[in-house]
Amino acid sequence: MRFVFEPSAPVSLPVTGQDERFPVHRVYCVGRNYEEHAKEMGFTGREPPFFFLKPSDSLVVVDAGQSGTMPYPSLTHNLHHEIELVVAIGVGGKNIKAADAEKHIYGYAVGLDMTRRDLQNDMKKQGRPWCIGKAFDQSGPIGPITPKDRAGDVNNAEISLQVNGVDRQRSSVAKLIWNIAETIEHLSAAWELQAGDLIFTGTPEGVAAVVPGDRLVGQVAGLGSLSIVVQQ
Ligand code: MN
Which domains, from first to last, does the chain contain? Predict the structure, then answer.
């Protein structure tokens, strides 16, 4: 096939323990999926889950044992960190029931849903889409994928984030309002999932601003850590 210009290389993630990489299709994100974070954002209760997307080429892929960088993005004065467990889909499907969701999972990764909070809040007030707050370039630092059979008990794993060595976020994946299987059920009712899709499952409480020079180190137990420095 010939193109009018060279197409971009596919976005892919390293996979722990093997040479083959995981090719990324779409990047879905769940909003307000931990109760204490929903409260800090001014909401309570178990609302139905809701979703937004980031472009796959907004991911900042950080190899195991490496430290990545992301630029401080334009237009914002309030860049927030959101540490998240990311689910990698290996087998697509639509209308997947929670009881069957496990069969569709390839593995898991640690990700950051970086957010231009001031712009997101402006959009919320005006009832406009969140894209400018959530889907900006290099908004999704992410580490390698751990295949599910090497990942341990992800549903009960500790999740945490330190900025310059100081704890900012610490919780458990067990505190998800909609757990991984339920999230896949809801998401696949709205979109047909495909192999290569990623799902950022939401962040626990403690979101706050970072500034250029800050080093963010996030972990989900069993999946290793993700390290990134915000540059000017
Ligand atoms: Mn998020």
Answer: 12-231 (3.90.850.10)
